[in-house]
Amino acid sequence: MKQAILVVAFGSTVDSAREHNIDSVVEHIRKSYPDYTVELAFSSRIIVKRLRERGIEIPTEQGALEKLIQEGYTHVYVQPLHFTGGEEFDKLKNNILAHEGEGQLEVLRVGRPLVYYMGQEEHPDDYQILIDRFIKSLNISKDDGLLLLIRNGLTNVRIAVLENAPYVSDVAMPWEWLDGKRPKTIYVHPLLLVLGDHAQNDLFGDEEDSIVNELAGAGYEVKSIHSALEIVPVVFPMVLDDSTQEEGWQEAKRVILSYLDEAHICMYNRLIENTGHEIETIPGVTAFCAIGSHLGYPIVEKEEVLAIVPATAPKEKIDAVLAVADDAVIMKVYKNFDEVQETLIKHNMADDAVMISRVGLPDEQVFVGLDNIQKDTKLNYLSTILAKRKDR
């Protein structure tokens, strides 16, 4: 029986980041499983290509798996270095499992990200495990400061992602409502093994829609921590020894505590309740309803079909939804207005559409009719479109 562990990271072209933040993980797994062959692969084809041009050979996950199959391995366990599930993880998993039964393979398994299950049926609650073993040990009261952890999916940390839910606006902006208090300071820390240029720009860039500038524009004092995660044993889900994990959690506690002098942690209402905090939901008015009322624009009438879609969804999904909808609310249009405008024009919904940025605020902007707006128009993050089909 030949057994192998294939560790798959997205990858990095930065040598120091790759060696410190990825190779160190592989080496830890290699030491923890001396009876297994441990190999590394990158899922980013662009990074693999650029490294190859520099004479550095790191295979894709498919290339690495095919090599293991050719070498006669019977048991292969693939462990991604993803923190949460999502499109990238699903694509990776499908690529791997497509090789089931090939060669002499008897067992082919894909490990889950650090936090994946939420206690569904017989599955563990990875988020609760994270809280029980790490967050609770911080002993931070709910009256302390705030930490915002950002990744490329309790009492005082909120986690957001850059291009999926929960967005920063979903988890950061409502903080001022907790206990009727508004925090003065938000610490922004990447929840990433490798902090590349793309993430650096999205988080800390000079553009108006970077995370730090959005938070600063909302009135917070923002303190940026320009570093990827410090590697501690706690981040390795394949370490099963309780004493080793406990040492890792305690070391992680020491590292994170240095950032939490004034912090307040939060991650989903259900998990906050588990820490003994009382949760009160205050009914409010949704943004698009406020916009419709503010502009006197009927959102939906009679038997019309209303669609509510995020502009961050794939273009083909937005196209399919607008093909059957009479009315549409399109949110988060600040990044890809060009594609949204093109799709609205295609479905005869642009002429009478309205778009508003920062509704009700002093610098509110209103656009009526979206077919003639220049494609490179700079939009605020808080921009929403209301549209109606003209041919129905």
UniProtKB/TrEMBL annotation:
One matching Pfam family: TP_methylase
Mitochondrion keyword on record: no
Pathway: Cofactor biosynthesis; adenosylcobalamin biosynthesis
Gene3D superfamilies in the record: 3.40.50.1400, Methyltransferase, Cobalt-precorrin-4 Transmethylase, Domain 2 (3.30.950.10)
Keywords: Cobalamin biosynthesis
Any one GO MF annotation of this record: precorrin-2 C20-methyltransferase activity
Top-rank lineage group of the source organism: Eukaryota
Coiled coil ranges: none
Domain Tetrapyrrole methylase: 268-369
Keyword Protein transport recorded: no
Cited PANTHER family: COBALT-PRECORRIN-2 C(20)-METHYLTRANSFERASE
Name of the featured protein: Tetrapyrrole methylase domain-containing protein
